[in-house]
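Customer escalation, tier 2.

The customer says the design service returned an amino acid string that "doesn't look like it belongs to this structure." They asked us to rerun it and document both sides in this ticket. The original structure tokens are below, unchanged.
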């Protein structure tokens, strides 16, 4: 089973861009038919699917975040990265990377369940504050 590990800053100032990287071990991010997602959980709220990058490199985004979100990958390092622009305190959350074998269309609504994904990173707390 693959293992995922998030890395990035724990504190971001308002208006800045967040950049988080997920390092994958035990499997390749180009393996068919895997999809690699970013998911977050604000305090007291449920999981929110943010976007994904497929084994092919194709990207998918939550429509509500699409204008601020970019996901890209470095296949040489077996990593994929989330960038979220124009951060506000409302973006404070635990951010997770996760993988799934095959696509699940229900995440396009933004809602996610832990059981939708086969492997998860431990999560990283990101706080937006000046």
């Amino acid at each position: 089973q693959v293992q995922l590990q998030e890395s990035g800053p724990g504190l971001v100032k308002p208006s800045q861009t967040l950049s988080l990287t997920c390092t994958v071990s035990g499997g390749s991010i180009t393996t068919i038919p895997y999809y690699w997602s970013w998911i977050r959980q604000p305090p007291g709220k449920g999981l929110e699917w943010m976007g994904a990058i497929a084994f092919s490199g194709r990207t998918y985004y939550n429509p509500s975040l699409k204008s601020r979100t970019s996901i890209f990958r470095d296949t040489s390092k077996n990593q994929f990265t989330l960038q979220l622009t124009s951060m506000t305190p409302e973006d404070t959350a635990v951010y997770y990377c996760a993988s799934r074998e095959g696509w699940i269309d229900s995440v396009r609504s933004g809602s996610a369940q832990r059981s939708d994904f086969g492997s998860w990173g431990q999560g990283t707390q990101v706080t937006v504050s000046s």
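Tier 2 assessment: The sequence is consistent with the input. The radius of gyration is 13 Å. The chain has a mean pLDDT of 96. Sent an explanation to the customer and offered a walkthrough call.
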